[in-house]
Amino acid sequence: MPTFVKQVQNQQIIIQVEIHTLDRPDDKHRFDALVDTGAEGTVVSSRVVTALSPMAIDTGRVILADHTEVESPIFLLNVAVPVAKLPGISDQNASGPGETGVGGTVMVMTLPRQPDNYDVLLGMDLLPLFHITLVGGQFLMSV
Fold first, then answer.
1. What superfamily would CATH give domain 3-142?
2. What is the enclosing helix (H) or strand (E) of 4?
3. C-alpha distance across the termini of the chain, in Å
4. Nearest in space to 17 (alpha carbons), one of 78, 62, 106
5. Which DSSP string do the residues of 10-29 spell out, in sequence order?
6. Which residues of 83-107 are buried (b: 16+ CB within 10 A; e: fewer)?
7. CA-CA-CA-CA torsion for 88, 138, 125, 89, nearest 10 degrees?
8. pTM of the full predicted structure?
C-alpha cells in the first residue's frame, strides 16, 4: 500500500495534487492542496482556473466556514493525488514516472479568496479514497 508522510505545520496539511480538464487530459498541472476533512467538496483558487481555463458548467453557492454564502462558477475537473505505482494499480490518472494519480472527476467551485500557501482545498468528495492517519504531528496518507 503506497503511503506518504507529511509533517503537520501550522495546523495545516499541504500536499501536491495534479489537475486537468476533461477535454485536455495531457495538460496536467500540479498545485499545492490543503487537506480539509471538514470541507464537503473540493474547491480551487483563481490561479487554477487561470492555468487550466476550464469551461464553467453551472453556478452554485459556496458556504464558507463563517456560514456566509458566495456565488461561484462550477467546473468539472479531474483532481488526483500523485502516489508511487504498485503492480496491479490502474494507470488511468497516470502522473510522472513511477507515479499514478489517485482521484477522479469532481465538480469544483472557486475559492472566494486567494490563500497564501495553497491553490486547492481538498474535501470529502475525494478524501474517502484514502486511508488517513494523524499521529505525533505527522499526516500519513495511504491508498
1. Acid Proteases (2.40.70.10)
2. strand 3-7
3. 6
4. 78
5. TTB-EEEEEEEETT-TT--E
6. bebeeeeeeebbbeeebbbbbeebe
7. 0
8. 0.84
Per DSSP, 9 falls in state B
| Site of grid cell 475559492 | 111
Alpha carbons 97 and 123: distance in angstroms, whole number: 26
Question: CA 96 to CA 12: how far, in whole Å?
Answer: 26
Tell me the CA distances in angstroms from 43 to 85, 87, 101, 115, one per residue in order.
26, 32, 18, 12
- 15-37 pLDDT, tens per residue? 999 999 999 999 999 999 999 99
Q: What does the alpha-carbon distance between residue 35 and residue 139 come to, in Å, rounded to a whole number?
A: 10
Q: Where are the domains of the chain?
A: 3-142
Q: How far apart are CA 64 and CA 39, in angstroms?
A: 9
Amino acid in position 63: I
Amino acid (one-letter) located at 59: T
Side chain identity at residue 77, one-letter code: L
Segment 58-78, tens digit of pLDDT = 999 887 778 888 899 999 999
